[in-house]
Amino acid sequence: MKRALTGKIVIATHNAGKLREMRELLAPYGVEAVSAGELGLGEPDETGADFVSNALIKARAAAAAAQLPAFADDSGLCVDALDGAPGIYSARWAGDSKDFAAAMARIEAEVTASGSPSRRAHFVSALAVVWPDGEAAVFEGKVFGDLTFPPRGKAGFGYDPCFTPDGHARTFGEMTAEEKHGIPADGSEALSHRARAFQMMARALLK
């Protein structure tokens, strides 16, 4: 079993939406979280070939720079008809301006052009925790569903408005934060990919 995660940690992100979700998830555990952006840390190049590798790159860089345990997420949307794209390039499809409306329009256009009848997709979140001495732990959560066009809802961030999880009629963009990533008190599985990965991490490191 890994050591417990306590005290002050760095959330290795400059993404306001991810930061908000991570702080909300950590709040019940009394862990003080400061972001890489608030500490003025740079963003390392995400050169990994998968979500886990990129999460580790970000967490290792933040842990080394801040000399604190670091917590990083790498996540994205994988579309079946596009052979898993945009995948690890999900943020890059939105460009420097973070125009996710344009990114969602690109997905719709490319799925249509592919000729595939499938609208299946899934979100992946890899959470990495790295301590300054190099010890690391990684947890990966997924949620499956269907693409929804035109996108619906103003809540959430990123690709949330174009994704409807299995068993639900509303997109992530139409759900409240509590609906999307609330951790059920009965121990059952949370809904979002990030909350599912967080549940795994909490069981291992936040007891």
Task: Describe this structure as you would to a colleague.
This protein is of the alpha/beta class and 207 residues long. The protein has a single domain (8-205), classed as Maf protein (Alpha-Beta Complex). It is 31% helix and 21% strand. The chain has a 6-stranded mixed sheet. Helix 1 (16-26) links the parallel strand 1 and strand 2 (32-35). The relative contact order is 0.16.
Secondary-structure blueprint of this entry?
Blueprint: E1 8-11, H1 16-26, E2 32-35, H2 51-66, E3 70-79, H3 90-93, H4 100-114, E4 120-130, E5 136-147, E6 163-165, H5 177-181, H6 193-205
Parallel strand pairs: 1-2, 1-3
Antiparallel strand pairs: 3-4, 4-5, 5-6
- Any idea what the CATH architecture is? Alpha-Beta Complex
Strand content: 15-25%
Question: Termini separation (Å)?
Answer: 11 Å
The CATH topology is what?
Maf protein
pLDDT averaged over residues: 92
Order of strands in the sheet with most strands: 2-1-3-4-5-6
The top-level CATH class is Alpha Beta
Q: Round the Cα radius of gyration to an integer and report it.
A: 17 Å
What keyword list fits this structure?
about 210 residues, 6 strands, 6-stranded mixed beta sheet, Maf protein, alpha/beta
